[in-house]
Amino acid sequence: MDAPLVIRPKLWLLLGAIAAIVLAPAALSFVPNPFEGLGPEQRPSRFFATLWLLLPILMLLAVWRVLAWTSYRATREWIEARNMLGVKRSTWSELTSSELDTPTGMPPAYELRFGKRKVRLIAAHHDRTKIQALKALITR
User: Against a cut of 0.70, is the pTM above it?
Assistant: First the structure.
């Protein structure tokens, strides 16, 4: 049996998410509270207020990215999506359409549709050579 084709998001995405999870709270501890010591009719510094808003959002998005981390394994018979919630396998006989030539949508992504289920591989997050290998695997 052939070894399955493994498609994972690029490593920089994982490293960036981990760095954001670690560095955002550290940076937030150094940013002064923009609302501290304000009197009536005084405005907080826009720069620091923006940092106070965006750093926690950045950290939450990075946590979501790590929790939603999905890798795909494909063989001649099936493709399976593996993430923290488990494994979902779809057979190629259920494939209704595929768009692996050029990325579509926003963000640009490659799509495989299995009836109501859809597998989206975001173009910027996945290696183009792996997508081409998947396309070759489907057309066999």
Answer: yes
